[in-house]
Amino acid sequence: MLTLIRWDSRDYKETLVLQSQVLKVSAELLLRESPAEEKQAIHLVARQNKRIVGTLLLHPCSSKCIQIKQVAIHPDYQGVGKKLLVYAEQIARNLNYSTLFLTGRK
User: In three state form, how does the secondary structure of the chain look?
Assistant: First the structure.
């Protein structure tokens, strides 16, 4: 199931745990508080059996441009990533963004 969640919700906090595991970010830093810079972002998750197994956020750069950030997919559910990206594209299109981009890291 693909859905939107609210910043700083219980589900959001679960995404921070997944991000820390998958992206190798300090769990202590992430779990202390919700990053304020993500408050205006659009948060998407994928669930399997009520468990969040994938997450990403859409960060508006301008009125027409939005960036995909913080993509994290549980290793056991890698097929969910493509579905989550397609869902993100649909959300961006529905919100009238004409440019959607994603950058990677090494």
Answer: CEEEECCCCHHHHHHHHHHHHHCCCCHHHHHHCCCHHHCCCEEEEEEECCEEEEEEEEEECCCCEEEEEEEEECHHHCCHHHHHHHHHHHHHHHCCCCEEEECCCC
How many residues belong to the chain?
Answer: 106
Closest CA to 47 of 8, 19, 77, 88: 77
Could you tell me if 88 and 54 are in contact, meaning their C-beta atoms sit under 8 angstroms apart?
Answer: no
Single-letter code of the amino acid located at 84:
L
pLDDT tens column, 27-75: 444 555 677 788 889 999 999 999 999 999 999 999 999 999 999 999 9
CA 65 to chain CA mean position, Å = 17
Q: What's the pTM value of the predicted model, to 2 decimals? A: 0.82
